[in-house]
Design a protein that fits this description.
Largest sheet: 7 strands, antiparallel
Strand content: 25-35%
Radius of gyration: 20 Å
Distance between the termini: 48 Å
Shape: elongated
Length: 121
């Protein structure tokens, strides 16, 4: 009986530890400011993440919300409609830096030269 309790205690202790290579702690964030330099840095990182030359952000105040919508590419001259939907990202703080996390894949991408702060939501 005593051995059984020791094994259970041992299992519980190690079950709570993070495995090696676990994802770092992240906190939802918002931009400190939406000046041209900040938005350019954000757009450049999102374009790299989506493997596109340029991206258009959805109309939202990123100093108030952590959700970023990247709009689909514009229609071509012979297109009349598209089933494409915006791609959603979350702005987060990770290791004292800003990252964007793609919602559909969970991939994260660092954003250089961007100042963000923890979201109050």
């Amino acid at each position: 009986m005593k051995l059984h309790l020791q094994l259970c205690a041992f299992a519980l202790i190690f079950a709570c530890e993070s495995p090696p290579g676990a994802s770092p702690a992240r906190t939802l964030a918002v931009l400190e400011q939406t000046d041209k330099a900040s938005l350019d840095a954000l757009r450049a990182s999102l374009a790299d993440a989506m493997e596109r030359a340029d991206v258009t952000l959805g109309p939202i105040d990123l100093t108030q919300t952590s959700t970023i919508s990247v709009l689909p590419p514009k229609l071509g001259p012979h297109d009349t409609r598209s089933p494409a939907l915006p791609t959603q990202f979350d702005l987060m703080i990770e290791d004292d830096g800003c990252v964007v996390v793609r919602r559909d894949t969970g991939e994260s991408f660092a954003v250089k030269d961007l100042k963000c702060r923890a979201s109050v939501d």
